[in-house]
Amino acid sequence: MSTSIDVSGEIDAPLIPEKKESIMASWSNIALTGNVRDVLNAQREKIRPWSEFAEQKEFFAPAGLQEWTKRAIKNVSHYQSNYIIVFLVLMTYCVLTSPLLLIALAVSGIGSYTVSKHEGQNLQIAGKEVPSKYRYGLVGLVSAPLLFIAGAGAALFWTLGATATIIGGHASFRKAPETPDPFAQEV
């Protein structure tokens, strides 16, 4: 017994119009959404006082591995915003103390800003139009060797290493903050 079903017909798919302009490359499209702004405000509110962060009486070696683990986890979550500030300060220090790196970052930033400023305008080279994505590629090609020569990678990894050492030392040796037990009852 054979059954035959007719499935012939035409399906008209809607055409998706092509956009000529790249939305990725426009500086005007960069805006803080509500969620990002909320996260930044929440992190700003979580910054602990620096006198509490660096209080010397609270630093001592943990008794064992279990205490060290609990202490590190609590301290990292409690002082997270302070650790972010430590990273940013170290990165700023690293950039400002390296004039060549500062120049390379300025050239890269100015190049990207210039390309984004002339987003809708046509650029003709040798009679051919150059789209903005290739202009950004040119900025990247010029910036990459400059950043390499300036030691941007070394600066970044030095900053990450120094930050990890500071955070690891602080989180390991600072007494964990007292958190009230929500299930504790007074008798």
UniProtKB/TrEMBL annotation:
Compartments (UniProt record): Cytoplasmic vesicle, Secretory vesicle, Synaptic vesicle; Membrane
Name of a matching Pfam family: PRA1
GO cellular component, one term: membrane
Membrane disposition: Multi-pass membrane protein
Key words, A-Z: Membrane, Transmembrane, Transmembrane helix
Record-linked InterPro entries: Prenylated_rab_accept_PRA1
Keyword Transmembrane helix set for record: yes
TM regions (residue ranges): 83-115, 136-158
Family: Belongs to the PRA1 family.
Protein name per Swiss-Prot or TrEMBL: PRA1 family protein
Species assigned in the record: Oikopleura dioica
